From TrEMBL:
Residues of the signal peptide: none
GO MF, one example: GTP binding
Protein name in the entry: G domain-containing protein
Organism: Paxillus involutus ATCC 200175
Domain G, first and last residues per copy: 20-119
Length: 325
């Protein structure tokens, strides 16, 4: 006996699949985790190092739950940050890629879940930076995040790794709504086949639990331009904070020539316009000394970048920068 309500069609389920972003630094096993979830080799693990930050490839997956019901999920295998690419140019490219990614996710229903792939081992600066970029900056702390710890095939108990290492994540304020400790390789001659199957069941169960909460639970920015301003400002503040750290190690601050070169290279300003704008910025901080100098420098740059990205009104930028802070 039926209640007269037809189940959603295959096309309807595929179209309204919850979107999941999988990210992490190169070598963390993102593409291998995609294949682990899918049960087949969809993602090319050999190309995982290619592309710039926030480049992504999407895969439509169908998973079955304990009642043998099908669940459609769209996974975005996304390039994260690496220590070797920690530069202003990479962040500036990331702004454009972030806008493209969020636009696509908005168009297809928003983001339901973040999966952060982390290779078992110590927590590095790249681990922390990826968490900040995707969870705090890109998704504004609004999207649930799950950790998938990879490379645990040699652990006697994969889940035991989390028990021992969870305090380290708390120490660095890396919080998650769920986690899965896995191996994403079968090993030579299928030596890890049993742990691989266990890992597949674990990560699939976590994924289904986190994405089966109804269509209304996905997050997307309320307004695209406002989100872009927020993201651009946060990303570029990050750039200059890291530049400031390197400057402290060199025992010197950012020079006006470096600032001019940055404005020319990143925003295609003519040498005269870049020098004019850099001079206006510099004049306002001649009296700035001590720790407040770095904060003001970052704030001025972020104001400039956000205005340029979204309005392109150079005189409006000059006026904004000239206002007392």
């Amino acid at each position: 006996m039926t209640d007269g309500i037809s189940p959603p069609s295959y096309e309807h389920q595929r179209r309204y699949s919850p979107n999941v972003i999988i990210f992490g630094e190169t070598g963390a096993g993102k593409s291998s985790v995609v294949n682990l979830i899918a049960g087949e080799n969809l993602a090319d693990v050999s190309s995982s190092a290619a592309g710039c930050t926030l480049d992504s490839t999407s895969y439509d997956l169908v998973l079955s739950d304990a009642q043998d019901r099908s669940h459609h999920i769209r996974v975005f295998d996304t390039v994260g940050l690496n220590e070797a690419t920690f530069s202003p140019d990479d962040y500036l490219k990331a702004i454009e890629k972030a806008n493209e990614l969020i636009f696509e996710l908005q168009r297809t229903g928003g983001i339901r879940l973040l999966i952060f792939c982390i290779r078992g081992g110590r927590i590095t600066s790249a681990t922390q930076n990826n968490y900040r970029l995707f969870y705090e900056i890109l998704c504004q702390n609004e999207v649930p995040i799950a950790f998938v710890i990879t490379g645990l095939e040699n652990e006697r108990s994969m889940e035991g790794w989390w028990t021992k290492n969870a305090p380290e994540f708390e120490k660095y304020q890396l919080h998650c709504t769920s986690h899965a400790c896995v191996t994403a390789t079968r090993g030579l001659h299928d030596i890890y086949a049993q742990k691989y199957e266990q890992s597949q069941n674990t990560v699939r169960a976590m994924l289904l639990q986190q994405t089966s909460n109804g269509e209304g639970s996905s997050w997307k920015p309320a307004e695209q331009t406002g989100w872009l301003i927020h993201t651009a400002g946060r990303l570029l503040k990050w750039v200059f904070q890291n530049k400031a750290r390197r400057s402290r190690r060199r025992r010197r601050a950012l020079t006006i020539k470096e600032l001019i070169r940055f404005l020319e290279d990143s925003f295609s300003l003519s040498p005269s316009n870049a020098e004019d704008l850099a001079s206006k910025i510099w004049e306002m901080r001649q009296d700035s000394t001590g720790p407040d100098f770095v904060k003001r420098e970052v704030d001025y740059h972020c104001t400039f970048i956000s205005k340029c990205l979204c309005n392109n009104y150079l005189y409006d930028v000059y006026y904004t920068l000239a206002m007392p802070q």
